């Protein structure tokens, strides 16, 4: 989300097309993985295991682990920062609260998947409500939004725009 905020604050809506493209690319890649599962009866990890030798599998494993760790660090720090901004909790305690939250959600897995689904559905509904409220309180310039969906020259600081666009693609896909 930090990349999107930086892109929006620096370039307005001019990089919105990157978000749309990245979302479509992510959907396409998910469809390919689903088709692999339907046609071959294997998930992506099983297909990679059969296709690549030991070295290739180890490289994929290390890459996946590093990516997961980087994503988890960003999510934990983001949650801790949210606790700090919303409740005034110090960052270290925000990390502890985030870890506690994770343990609680993992503990709910033993109670049944429906409870976790209900919690996630409640969180998604809350986010949707907040987005709608935000648009109602501070309506965007819809002409600029539609214009941002068309690729174009971001104007000044093209290098920054490219870096942010790559960050958006990496965060989305």
Based on Cα principal axes, name the global outline.
Answer: globular
SSE string, helices as H and strands as E: HHHHHHHH
Give the terminus-to-terminus CA distance: 13 Å
The portion of residues assigned to helices is: over 70%
Can you describe this structure?
The protein is globular. The longest helix has 34 residues. It is mainly alpha-helical and 173 residues long. The protein has one domain. The protein has eight helices and no strands. 9% of the residues are buried.
Concise synopsis of the structure shown:
This protein has 173 residues and is mainly alpha-helical. The protein has eight helices and no strands.
List keywords for this structure.
NRAMP protein MntH; membrane; mainly alpha; transmembrane; NRAMP_fam; 8 helices; transport; 173 residues
Write the layout of secondary structure elements.
Elements: H1 2-11, H2 16-40, H3 44-51, H4 54-87, H5 91-108, H6 113-137, H7 142-148, H8 158-172
Helix pairs in contact: 1-8, 2-8, 4-5
């Amino acid at each position: 989300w930090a990349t999107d905020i930086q892109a929006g604050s620096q370039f307005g809506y001019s990089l919105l097309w990157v978000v749309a493209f990245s979302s479509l690319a992510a959907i396409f890649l998910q469809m390919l993985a689903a088709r692999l599962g339907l046609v071959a009866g294997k998930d992506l990890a099983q297909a990679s295991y059969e296709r690549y030798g030991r070295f290739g599998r180890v490289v994929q494993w290390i890459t996946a682990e590093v990516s997961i760790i980087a994503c988890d660090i960003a999510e934990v720090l983001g949650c801790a920062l949210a606790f700090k901004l919303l409740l005034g909790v110090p960052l270290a305690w925000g990390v502890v609260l985030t870890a506690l939250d994770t343990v609680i959600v993992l503990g709910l897995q033993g109670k049944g998947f429906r409870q976790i689904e209900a919690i996630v559905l409640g969180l998604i509904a809350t986010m949707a409500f907040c987005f709608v409220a935000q648009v109602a309180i501070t309506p965007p310039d819809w002409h600029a939004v539609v214009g941002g969906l068309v690729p174009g020259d971001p104007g000044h600081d093209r290098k920054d725009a490219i870096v942010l666009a790559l960050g958006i693609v990496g965060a989305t896909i």
